[in-house]
Every structure is written in C-alpha cells, then in structure tokens.
C-alpha cells in the first residue's frame, strides 16, 4: 500500500472530495427543504448521501482498481428545489427517492430498460435539466438586488476565482459566504453548534404523483447527467469499466440512503476527472487510490454534516439559494449548449425547456415531467410526419 498511496493521490483525493462537497452541499440542502424536509431531515439526508458516496467510492475503486468517484446527484437536488411540496409531504418525496433508486438498479441489471432510456434524445434531457436549473441560477442576482452587502461579495468572489480556475469558483464563493456571515450574522449560536447529529429515519410513502413528478425525473436526470457522463469521463482517461454493475450498486446505495433523507447517489463526472488524470499519479494503475481517499474524506464530511448545516442556517435563505445557484451556472451552460446542438430538435428542446422552467403543475405532477412529455410527443409527431412525407415523395417518384 505504501508504494501505491502517493502524496499526489492523497492530495487529488482530498481536493476531489472538497470540491464535490463544498460546491454543491447547499444545493442538496435547498432541494431537500424544497420537498418538505425539516432542518434535521435535510441534515440527515446530507449525512446519508455523503457516507453512501464514500462507501461506494472506496468499494468500487478497490474492487475494480479504477479511480471510480461517486457523487450525490446535484442536478436531481436542483430538480427538488423547483418541484414544490408533494402531496404526502417529505415522506412521499422519500418514496420517490426509493423508486428512482430501484429504477437505476434495474437499469444496471436489465438492458431493455437502458434502451428505453436511450430513446430519450440527449437534447431533450439537457433541455429538461436546463429548465430545472434556470430558476435557481437567477437567485444569486435576485440576492444581489435584495441584500447587496451580503450577496455581492459572494458573486464577485465566484467570478474572479472562476477566471483563474473554474474548479476554484464555487469554493471561493463559499469562502466569501463564510466571511460575510462572520461579519454580518449573529454568530453567538455557534457556541452551542452541534457537529454531529443522529440520522433521522423517514418511512417512505408511495404517492403516484410523487413517483411520476419526482421519481421519474430524478431517474432520467441521474442517468443522463451523471451516470452516463461519469462512465464516459473514465473512458476518456483510458479506463474501461463495465457500467451495469456500477449503475446497480449506486442504485442500491440510493435506496439504502433514501429512508434517511438521501435523494440519490451516482457516478461522479467533474470530480471523477480530478482523481483520474495524471496529477493523481503518473501510473494510471495506481490512480484509484485518489478515489479511495476521496471516499474516506466524504465519510468524514458526512459524519460532521450537522456542523455544515448549522453554519449555513445563520444566513438568509436567499443567500443560501444564491450560493447554490452559482454552483449550477456551469451545469446550465453545458445543458443549454447540449439542448441546442441538434438543429432539427431545437424547437422540441426549447418547448421542453420553457415548460420545465415555468414551474407549472397538473395533478400534483411537476413541470419537469410535463416538459419532457410534451417535448417527446412533439418530436415523435414531427418524426412521424417527416417519414410520411418521405414515403409520399418516394411513391410519387415511383
């Protein structure tokens, strides 16, 4: 072990975990609160997710000898923040988390389901994701208008650090957030701050509207925006993991963490590159130690989640939403580019994006589902018309 675990792998693993946790834990808290979680339940969810990420990351990496990083599904957390309180409250949301995790397990075991997911065009999946994220990405600037003394330093720190290194942008914004809190918030309550909290069990309830409006969109977003890109990034560095078992085990981790408030884990994408590149180790066969270290750090962060939440709760809610929104701007950029890259599908993608971003809800089912449904319906209708037109032209020529 001593010959394999290098200083570079250790530093890469610590950096990966810090970036993964610091850049998006506010989004997770915001999302869980959005579907009815109390402060204790949101803390429990954050803890369950971080520990599940750590265990799976360590297990995968030691099992496959590949730097396989695991993350919570940040796009899914963003989706929760805009879904609204489901009928049945947070227990119904937990039921949807379990359902989404089971679908991921089945996808890894049963290839036909993966093929069905493959029928959803990437442009429409990206359009749905962009529509989910857009309202959250507006919050930082709404915060600047409402509380400029608090929000402007955070936005400026994010912008300046991002010009130096994109990976530093969100951690810099988080640091500025903490500095602002120190000078402007009442920090007297920190003396009684709890660093550790016991997990909170929530019995899942299964509501059809929550399963359709929350569970299915979480599943689609997790597969399209996390799991599949996560495998692609590993392959870009020369690793060839078999994805099915990895998908299934992340699904198992999601199902087990759900009753404690976790919305779901997945293969990492951005942070996977930190552990898989040559900075982690010159020898590709030894880079998996970076992912092992990252997993251990995630577990530590998970254990002390209550401390992170206690500090964040000192801030105005709009400022917390602002930090979360800044962390999602990069994802929004990629999603918008992805939804517009195929010219024939742009109309369907724009419609999916607008319906999703509108926040409309029917029968207790949120906008993400309706946006994707309308976009898919329009696409299949246009494809059918195009085939009919081509058939008529072929008949006339004959």
TrEMBL record:
Species of provenance: Pseudovibrio ascidiaceicola
InterPro entries per UniProt: Benzoate_Transporter
Membrane-spanning residues: 12-32, 44-63, 90-110, 116-136, 143-161, 167-185, 206-226, 246-276, 288-312, 318-336, 348-373
Name the UniProt record assigns to this protein: Benzoate membrane transport protein
Pfam families: BenE
Domain of life per record: Bacteria
Keyword Transmembrane helix applies: yes
Keywords on record: Membrane, Transmembrane, Transmembrane helix
